[in-house]
């Protein structure tokens, strides 16, 4: 049957003999953050086996001191109100419920679940959708930044879990912090009121 070029799958695990495998990777060659992607449409249909698999994966990833985040997709399809106005995502009870379900499924804190809307049928870009996607990217980059700080020679490896709030607080203390990603996107005032 073969793996068809999919490395790391059950049929084709990555081992030390795998072409391109780096036995002693530099910091730049290591994984800095893992992003799980779960569909808001299917959040109630994941099996207990899948839940167990997610928890086992998270344990392995946590043992490697790698931060994790989850993107909850299709939030516009989870809630009719959000479908007509994605800026209402953080005010939507059905989206909040889907986030809580994703938190339980993955065994992650609710603060690590980030709602996003997929571009699927749109012909024009939407500032509200962009804002959600950029917030998700910023969330991931905060964890990457923290991982790099944890691995840096001046800080050592703390090996502990850091909440997004502590990541944000730590980043705010740096004068040279480049948080310009969000400044590029239009910020609808109604999105996070």
Write a brief structural summary.
One of its GO terms (biological process) is immune response. It contains 6 helices and 3 strands.
Q: What structural category arises from helix and sheet content? A: mainly alpha
Kindly state the number of beta strands. Answer: 3
Number of continuous helical runs: 6
Q: Which percent range fits the helix content?
A: 25-40%
Q: Roughly what fraction of the amino acids lie in strands?
A: 5-15%
Biggest beta sheet attributes: 3 strands, parallel
Region (Disordered): 152-193
Protein name: Interferon-induced protein 44-like
Organism: Alosa alosa
Description:
- With 193 residues, this protein is mostly helical.
- The chain has six helices and three strands.
- The protein has a domain of 129 residues.
Topology, pairings included?
Layout: E1 33-39, H1 48-63, E2 67-73, H2 75-78, H3 80-84, H4 93-106, E3 113-115, H5 127-151, H6 164-172
Parallel strand pairs: 1-2, 2-3
Helix pairs in contact: 5-6
Summary tags:
193 residues; disordered C terminus; disordered N terminus; 6 helices; globular
């Amino acid at each position: 049957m073969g793996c068809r070029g999919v490395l790391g799958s059950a049929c084709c695990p990555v081992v030390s003999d795998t072409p391109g495998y780096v036995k002693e990777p530099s910091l730049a060659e290591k994984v800095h953050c893992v992003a799980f992607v779960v569909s808001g449409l299917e959040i109630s249909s994941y099996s207990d086996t899948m839940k167990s698999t997610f928890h086992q994966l998270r344990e392995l990833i946590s043992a490697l001191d790698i931060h994790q985040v989850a993107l909850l997709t299709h939030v516009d399809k989870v809630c009719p109100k959000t479908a007509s106005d994605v800026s209402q995502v953080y005010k939507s009870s059905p989206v909040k419920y889907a986030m809580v379900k994703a938190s339980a499924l993955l065994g992650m804190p609710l603060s690590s679940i980030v709602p996003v809307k997929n571009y699927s049928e749109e012909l024009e870009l939407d500032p509200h959708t962009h804002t959600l996607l950029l917030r998700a990217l910023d969330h991931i980059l905060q964890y990457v930044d923290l991982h790099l700080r944890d691995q840096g020679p001046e800080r050592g490896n703390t090996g502990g879990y850091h909440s997004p709030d502590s990541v944000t607080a730590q980043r705010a203390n740096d004068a040279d912090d480049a948080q310009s990603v969000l400044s590029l996107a239009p910020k609808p005032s109604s999105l996070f009121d």
